[in-house]
Amino acid sequence: MSPTIEDAAEFLERALRSRSFVLIVGDCRVDYDGRASSTLDWGERAVIIKKDGSVLVHRPTGYEPVNWQPPSCLVRLSRSNANGLTVNASRAQPRENISIEYRNISLAAFGSLNDTSEFALHVTEAQMKQAILTAPNLVEEGLRPLAEEKHISETGFTDIYAEDKNGFLVIVEIKRNAANRDAVMQLQGYLEKIRKRTDRHLRGIVVAPYIRKSALPLLESLKIEFIKVAPEQCFAVLKTQKDMKISQFIAVSEDDNSKLI
Amino acid sequence: MSPTIEDAAEFLERALRSRSFVLIVGDCRVDYDGRASSTLDWGERAVIIKKDGSVLVHRPTGYEPVNWQPPSCLVRLSRSNANGLTVNASRAQPRENISIEYRNISLAAFGSLNDTSEFALHVTEAQMKQAILTAPNLVEEGLRPLAEEKHISETGFTDIYAEDKNGFLVIVEIKRNAANRDAVMQLQGYLEKIRKRTDRHLRGIVVAPYIRKSALPLLESLKIEFIKVAPEQCFAVLKTQKDMKISQFIAVSEDDNSKLI
DNA sequence: CCTTTCAGTTAGTTA
DNA sequence: TAACTAAGTGAAAGG
Predict the structure, then answer these.
(1) Which member of A180, B43, B79, B174 lies 3.0 to 4.6 Å from A115 by CB, making a disulfide possible if both were Cys?
(2) pLDDT (tens digit per residue) in B32-91
(3) pTM of whole model > 0.85?
(4) How far apart are CA B12 and CA A249, in angstroms?
(5) Using the CB atom, is residue B197 less than 7 Å from strand C?
(6) H-run or E-run covering A103
(7) Distance in angstroms, CA of B36 to C1' of D13?
């Protein structure tokens, strides 16, 4: 059933050379030495070796790996003896090393993982935009969205056209995470373009969960405003939308039931 | 090459029922909702489901899982449609849920991991004992170890017999981690046994990285002493021992080399 | 490269 | 069970 150590060694040699995602399940001993040191006697664990040099040793329970190595460390394979196979992962700065010695390997696999999607914590900018279009008072009392902006030449510029309660034109730039100088500059560039085409009074608002201190001077000098909108708020709005649909459905169902009584 | 979603579903159904260690590599979408919320669009990731209900979603790079669920959560499988398969992991307190929707599975495996060894951070008690036997001044200036104690009836009692510079008998109890009331009581019980057999002045010393505040009153009332010995110190001693051997070897080698010159 | 701060922190210990 | 604290914390942002 299990591959021989010999076969596994050859297999893993190829796996590590290919710098892909490597999975090993087997009976091993783990030694760590670095900022601290640790030992873990024989037992079956699952080990993940990633292409960036991360190494994770997972026991049968628990969220955290029992031993690990952060990204950008050097992973090598060595044969301690005919029946032994050791995976060695080390890095400098700080000098740390973990060695995983196998006496049996029950599963070994490797392959490249194709994964390019962006991870969005809380909500995406698109979802934030949707939330603000649904509930513009998240930004300002009396704000009325006008139309969605088509990306003309900008990259990664999520924004909203709107009118405030005084009828002034408002450009809202949304950032999913911290607004920095770049975000302010981007909005400024956009405002300047628009000012060339219209004489209307123009306001620029950066909307983000929070703003970098480093962006505050620029913000003030350009008379651009910052409104803090937490992803949670947006999520709450979107959730309420969803819940609305569900609660409406439930209401109908209850009506149906009442008819049955 | 890859199993069909149909086959994978059946396979994983069995895997989850067996409450063992489950590995899934495949093209998935991940949604999380709980203390925060997140989305992750299609891509290939490795998922670990442990018997205690931990769930880890790992991308091709990075130490941390992109999404996860801590131990003791409920993992269920559902078929969204003929070509879809969703792993759902939820827990209450706090209410959290992650759902992993697959459109392709390239690897699925499960099995029980037999892993009972104790994880020892820094050093084991045996190693601490070895270090103190090698360098008794870690505990006290002038301490001379007498003999190793055979475990009479105690469990997990790692200790050292010694004489201090005044010729008094010293019993040293070693704890790898925090010394608590139990440790003090254990040593006290042992001291009482010995006092019945001898009239010699007897000292009891608890050696550990640190001591619980809760154990201090008991310690004082029983006139038992506490000496802080950090695992790092023990490790340093053991390392020096090792290094001694190596440096001796190097010294010899250098001698040999010098002869060759 | 170092420092500070935050995390869906997790995990362990004490009250 | 809740509160407090440490972690081989890791990861991001700022200097």
Answers:
(1) B43
(2) 998 888 999 999 999 999 999 999 999 999 999 999 999 999 999 999 788 899 999 999
(3) no
(4) 33
(5) no
(6) strand A96-111
(7) 21
